[in-house]
């Protein structure tokens, strides 16, 4: 992973696989580190990838989805006029035989990497369309190694009973997407029959928090309409949920393959709106994660040295963003990683950057800098730090 060097208001932010470092302005010229700047980066060790302590495994339990979000990167075309069911990647559902193949594959890879702990991410489509496979997968892999699990779900099917069942099998966290306040969310994040989902999702999350220790990441998908209403949404969610057990994450909607335009122009005003949303969330007690581009256990190293992404049919991919995409297959559970074309191995956000149009990467960098400045200032209120020396500020 290359070092990212970004100029902020407090100095020059340097991000590498091992963390974040804030340097004085004099340590970089025209976006390039000086000799002294390079020396400080080396001394801090932020370019060094930390040794992996666990094997990271993403498993798709179902490629189908019960929602028809128009911007989803798994859509293959827009929905027909008047409909809410865009065509999607090929249908596949995880079964017991494939779970056994996953266990065999994972055991071999963990032994080869010298790793004895496992992180499992349940993914889709919507993983909870196949709850039996979610339970069976965690049960089987939990017999193989100490296991911690997370899940990316739309939350519509996350009942308290299911949350308890999966929690008993190692599920500790879940990411759930919301598309703004109720009327905006229900205009985009609908069932495939066109019905709104906001109230059901928030009710399910509140019930899951009452009955389990599940930690939630609230991914707020933002369009131009949503941006100015982020504080309103944060306040509503703080009234319904335990904010201290939630991460608030703002994610501008990307225009994958030109299928959906969120109307975001990457302007200064939009950047201010994102940061205002984050500031409000912090004031309300939500956790806000440190922005970074650390080394990903799934895709940083080719051929799955420290992790793998497995579709429900047993096909291997490098990243969850390419699941089901023709030409991005990199192997199979039975045959391992094959002789795939160079373009098929993409790491986090590379597929999004290539598919979503120009300007998004630069805007993401500006958001990252603004958020780092915001979080640094919040920390300095309770623990002032000198502003003229190199400052390690991001978690390693």
Labels describing this entry:
396 residues; 10-stranded mixed sheet; 19% strand; 16 strands; alpha/beta; 32% helix; 4-stranded antiparallel sheet; single chain; 10 helices
Outline: globular
Strand order in space, largest sheet: 11-10-9-8-7-6-12-13-14-15
Give the number of DSSP strands. 16
The overall pLDDT average reads 92
Strand content: 15-25%
Instruction: Quickly count the helices.
Output: 10
Helix content: 25-40%
- The string of secondary-structure elements, in order, is EEEEEHEHEHEHEHHEHEHEEEEHHE
Radius of gyration: 21 Å
Structural class: alpha/beta
Low-confidence stretches: none
What's the helix and strand layout?
Blueprint: E1 4-7, E2 12-16, E3 19-23, E4 28-29, E5 32-33, H1 35-44, E6 55-62, H2 96-113, E7 118-124, H3 131-144, E8 147-152, H4 160-168, E9 171-178, H5 182-188, H6 198-211, E10 215-222, H7 230-240, E11 246-252, H8 268-283, E12 307-310, E13 315-317, E14 331-332, E15 336-337, H9 350-355, H10 360-382, E16 391-392
Parallel strand pairs: 6-7, 6-12, 7-8, 8-9, 9-10, 10-11
Antiparallel strand pairs: 1-2, 2-3, 3-16, 4-5, 12-13, 13-14, 14-15
């Amino acid at each position: 992973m290359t070092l990212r060097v970004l100029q902020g208001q407090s100095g020059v932010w340097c991000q590498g696989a091992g963390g974040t470092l804030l340097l004085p302005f004099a340590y970089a010229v025209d976006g390039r580190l000086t000799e002294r700047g390079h020396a400080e980066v080396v001394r801090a060790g932020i370019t060094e990838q930390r040794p992996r302590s666990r094997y990271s495994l993403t498993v798709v339990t179902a490629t189908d989805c019960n929602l028809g979000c128009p911007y989803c990167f798994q859509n293959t075309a827009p929905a027909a006029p008047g409909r809410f069911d865009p065509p999607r990647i090929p249908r596949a559902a995880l079964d017991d035989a494939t779970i056994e193949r996953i266990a065999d594959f994972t055991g071999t890879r963990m032994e080869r990497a010298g790793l004895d702990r496992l992180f499992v991410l349940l993914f889709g489509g919507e993983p909870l369309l196949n709850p039996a496979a979610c339970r069976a997968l965690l049960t089987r892999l939990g017999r193989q190694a100490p296991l911690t699990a997370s899940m990316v779900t739309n939350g519509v099917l996350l009942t308290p009973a299911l949350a308890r069942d999966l929690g008993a099998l190692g599920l500790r966290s879940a990411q759930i997407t919301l598309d703004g306040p109720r009327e905006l969310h229900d205009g985009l994040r609908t069932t495939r029959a066109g019905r709104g989902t906001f109230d059901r999702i928030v009710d399910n999350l509140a019930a899951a928090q009452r009955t389990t220790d599940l930690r939630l990441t609230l991914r707020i998908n933002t369009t131009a309409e949503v941006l100015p209403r982020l504080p309103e949404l944060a306040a509503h969610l703080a009234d319904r949920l335990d904010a201290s057990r939630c991460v608030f994450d703002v994610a501008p909607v990307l225009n994958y393959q030109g299928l959906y335009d969120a109307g975001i122009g990457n302007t200064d005003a939009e950047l201010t709106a994102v940061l205002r949303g984050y500031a409000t969330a912090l004031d309300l007690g939500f956790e806000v994660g440190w922005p970074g581009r650390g080394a990903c256990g799934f895709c940083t190293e080719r051929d799955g040295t420290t992790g793998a992404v497995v579709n429900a049919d047993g096909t291997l991919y490098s990243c969850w963003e390419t699941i089901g995409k023709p030409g991005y297959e990199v192997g199979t559970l039975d045959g391992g990683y094959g002789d795939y074309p160079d373009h098929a191995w993409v790491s986090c956000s590379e597929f999004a950057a290539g598919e979503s149009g120009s300007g998004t990467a630069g805007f993401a960098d500006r958001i990252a800098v603004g958020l780092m400045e915001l979080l640094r200032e919040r920390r300095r209120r309770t623990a002032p730090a000198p502003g003229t020396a190199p400052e390690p500020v991001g978690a390693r």
